[in-house]
Amino acid sequence: MPAISYQMYGSRNWALPETFAMLSAAGFTEVEGYGGIYGDLDGLQACLHENKLRMTTGHFDLSVIVNDPQRVIDVANRFGMEAVFAPYLTDDARPSDLAGWQAFANDLVEAGKPLQAAGLTFGWHNHDFELLDLGAGVTALDVIAQASPDLKLELDIGWVIRAGQDPVATIHKYANQISVAHIKDIAAQGAGLDEDGWSDVGHGVVDWAPIHAALQAAGVGRYVIEHDNPNDHHRFATRSLDSVTAL
């Protein structure tokens, strides 16, 4: 079974001490950070230690990775992170054509080199927009994956499905470059409207058995449980962990 972590973004509406205590009690031992929690590093480290949690991976805004890679390296080393992922591009920052994405992918490869030289895995976390057809069946995620074998992917299964793609086929397609998988479920039609249409893992419409098998065949060693907007993060965390450990 892969290591199981929890993306802290889903608990952004709750206080960190409460969240870490809840996750520890639920049985989590790992979490994934994101930009909003790196402000008070001393407090963050103390809270993790108190609850016997490790921050093994982290999301960092691409602008920080590009402009201050040493800051990213220092934070990652302080918490013992193994991998760092750039998580998102706003609408106005997204390339509009194949050539633009090729230039972006090359820039992403360059941005990751200082982190990789420091011993970190570096990669990209997808949403749905990277899986849109740019022409001739090529997607932005294809371009990113083809830019360098050293550029890894944190494949978000929920967004793959939201993009209308087959998750198992997508896993097979990028198998050699998937370092981590985001395990995110989708609510049934008309359900979960107050949670942006997402669901607790194992309580939505996603068939996880073949996805899990494909991820394991690809050698993916870490699953990060995520929900972008839970109205009850305790319910989400506990039910999702139960579902994933039962796979």
Automatic annotation (TrEMBL):
Record's keyword terms, sorted: Isomerase
Signal peptide: none
SUPFAM superfamilies in the record: Xylose isomerase-like
Phosphoprotein found in the keyword field: no
InterPro entries recorded: IolE/XylAMocC-like, Xyl_isomerase-like_sf, Xyl_isomerase-like_TIM-brl
Gene3D superfamilies: Divalent-metal-dependent TIM barrel enzymes
One MF term in the entry's GO annotations: isomerase activity
Xylose isomerase-like TIM barrel domain segment(s): 66-231
Protein's recorded name: Sugar phosphate isomerase/epimerase
